[in-house]
């Protein structure tokens, strides 16, 4: 089983939104073979709580424009690790320290990485 076209499109939209707000280390994984509850994880990070919230707001705005509504949103108040659940796609926007500590990439390394559009860049090195 692989991620649906809709899930991939939403992941690309989320990654572009994060990129536009200078998110760092943007990656996406097709987790559809491992999890029955979602198809794609998008993971990105930022060096401070304020930027985490800014990325989250942009992702939410862009996915809303694409017709997607989150079924769950956790961690926004703290701004350290915000999880946005859109059923087919789960977006993790993490503070750099949390990302290093929890190492989600290591946990999901057996899942195939999803290719992101060329216009998605990570961080300030544009």
UniProtKB/TrEMBL annotation:
GO annotation, biological process: cytosolic ribosome assembly; negative regulation of ribosome biogenesis; negative regulation of translation
InterPro entries according to UniProt: Iojap/RsfS/C7orf30, NT_sf
UniProt KW Cytoplasm keyword: yes
Protein keywords: Cytoplasm, Repressor, Translation regulation
Entry's localization field: Cytoplasm
GO MF, one example: ribosomal large subunit binding
Main subcellular location of this protein, as a coarse class: cytoplasm
GO CC terms, sorted: cytoplasm
Superkingdom, taxonomy of origin: Bacteria
Purpose of the protein: Functions as a ribosomal silencing factor. Interacts with ribosomal protein uL14 (rplN), blocking formation of intersubunit bridge B8. Prevents association of the 30S and 50S ribosomal subunits and the formation of functional ribosomes, thus repressing translation.
NCBIfam families listed in its UniProt record: rsfS_iojap_ybeB
Quaternary structure annotation from Swiss-Prot or TrEMBL: Interacts with ribosomal protein uL14 (rplN).
PANTHER family, per the entry: IOJAP SUPERFAMILY ORTHOLOG, MITOCHONDRIAL ASSEMBLY OF RIBOSOMAL LARGE SUBUNIT PROTEIN 1
UniProt record similarity statement: Belongs to the Iojap/RsfS family.
The name this protein goes by in its record: Ribosomal silencing factor RsfS
High-level lineage: Bacteria, Bacillati, Actinomycetota, Actinomycetes, Propionibacteriales
